């Protein structure tokens, strides 16, 4: 009986060694960045149709419930753009992130920098 147990242990040891030789060639799962910017926190199941500065006046409707991984803006904040790690701002700050900011946006930015 001891001999059978010894043979089984040796077999398992060799099969484990063989697996370890193969394992380095198996691609690793990518690391997920869980660091989020200000006004947001990491979530494992986000909507794929977030409200952003570009769609704030006409938010997406009927979005499919597929989960996306990334950062979700806290209540009262929206994403500047659609990226999973996009910056979250108050809706009135969206004007600051347009390609050509309005005069109002420039004034808000100046006041913010001088404060």
Automatic annotation (TrEMBL):
It holds the Pfam family TIL. Residues 1-19 form the signal peptide. Keywords: Signal. InterPro entries: Ser_inhib-like_sf (IPR036084), TIL_dom (IPR002919). Residues 36-94 form the TIL domain. This is TIL domain-containing protein.
């Amino acid at each position: 009986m001891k001999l059978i147990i010894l043979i089984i242990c040796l077999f398992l040891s060799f099969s484990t060694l063989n697996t370890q030789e193969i394992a380095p060639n198996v691609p690793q799962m990518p690391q997920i960045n869980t660091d989020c910017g200000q006004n947001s926190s990491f979530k494992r199941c986000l909507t794929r149709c977030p409200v952003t500065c570009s769609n704030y006046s006409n938010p997406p409707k009927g979005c499919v419930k597929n989960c996306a991984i990334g950062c979700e803006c806290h209540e009262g904040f929206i994403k500047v753009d659609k990226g999973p790690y996009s910056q979250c701002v108050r809706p009135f700050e969206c004007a600051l992130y347009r390609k050509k900011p309005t005069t109002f946006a420039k004034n808000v930015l100046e006041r913010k920098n001088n404060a």
